[in-house]
Amino acid sequence: MKISHLIITAVLATVIAGCATPNTSRQEAFLAASPRSILVVPVVNRSVEVTAADYMLSTVSIPLAERGYYVFPINMVKRVLEDDGLSDSSMVHSAPTSRLAKLFGADAVLYVTIDRWDAKYLVLNTTVTVGVTYEIRDGKTDVVLWQNHAKLVHKSDKGGGGGGLGGLIAKAITAAVTRGMPNYMPLARRANITALNKYPGAGIPFGPYASAEELAVQSNIEKQK
Prior knowledge:
Blueprint: H1 3-9, E1 12-17, H2 24-33, E2 37-40, E3 44-45, H3 52-66, E4 70-71, H4 74-83, H5 89-94, H6 97-104, E5 108-121, E6 126-138, E7 144-156, H7 164-180, H8 184-197, H9 212-224
Parallel strand pairs: 2-4, 2-5, 3-5
Antiparallel strand pairs: 1-7, 5-6, 6-7
Helix pairs in contact: 3-8
């Protein structure tokens, strides 16, 4: 049996856990600030996976825009920050939010920090873990408007690959390949969606460019509080 076939037929399980509980006062501050545009700055990566920041940065804009906010083009943002002497993500995160927002005319700034991004090999299965912290600050006052954390665990199924010696070999090969080429992109997308989209809950409210139906539902939720 070919390795590619083993990968296709292997059953994968995704476990979503660890989202922060809603911070009501912060969400009220977010609604009061009512940002229309959000600047996504380069991601700080505290994990051992060197490409993690690129995965996360390339996937965070879409769910944010789908919530109804204008999101500045990622490549343009990186270029402007570098021209302003902010070529390192840690430098960007330590700079005043108001300075960053002023460069682009943004209402708010989204900071993303990768706390964990790794694959653990356990002979017959592989566990891939992604942990990300999100924070949005007001572009004028530097005040934190919203925070959340998403943790996702992706496992190759222990029961896949059939029985007997052939099944054990199949599972071992699948786990080894998963370890060597972990598919982080779907996990990055799911982390962003999990953190941003659950509202009411720990996510962010819909923005001004959301559909009329979505805004109407949100308005009813706010009235019921």
